[in-house]
Please model this.
Amino acid sequence: MRSMAGELLLRLVYPGRCKGCGGALGRGEKHFCLACLGRVNRIDGALCTYCGLPFPHGSGGDHPCSGCMERRPPFTSARAPLVYEGVIKEAIHLYKYRQFRSLKGYLGGFIEEGAQKFFPDATVAVPVPLHKRRLRHRGFNQSLFLAERVARSLGIKLSLDGLERIRYTKPQVELKPEDREKNVRGAFEVSRPEDFKAERVLLVDDVYTTGATVRECARVLTALGAEAVYILTVARVIKE
Model:
């Protein structure tokens, strides 16, 4: 019997195996089998009206969560169609850090679904920007691709460089939740205010974790005159 570590290594290095379940891939399947690709946990039911945190079933309709009641976020509302776990977590990781570009269509489908469902009234899409140093290291901004898909899906404008990351920061995943807000404070700047003034801005990223990054982006966009700032991600973390 293979060890768990051996099984995980097999899934990563052997292209004929599904990276979700480890089973053999069929004709036309790449990285994940169709069964695993369809095995996602959707967010439905009652949500926080601001941050989109799902509530337990039977807790009533949409209403503010305790965190947003205590401290209202600077954005209008945040939504994600999926829970950040399982195959979606693995797919985002492979696309983002290992450049498995063939997964972008799969992830793009979910971001389009979320845009049409939650924010059909948005007027301009903008990706959460990467600092130039990290962009050079990674080679691409996964959020830009997602924002492009959203803009095409809704038929709205896309701001490519209207929002910039002007300060290099530590990766948020390396920090405790309480340190993430401090890490990104002052890291973003609006370089093209005309892209956002009096617009309903849809800020696009891959994952909503604590919300520190998108809150800081929303703060500067709102200060520059955006009518509303919506947050859309493919998935969100439910429990840190």
Summary: The radius of gyration is 18 Å.
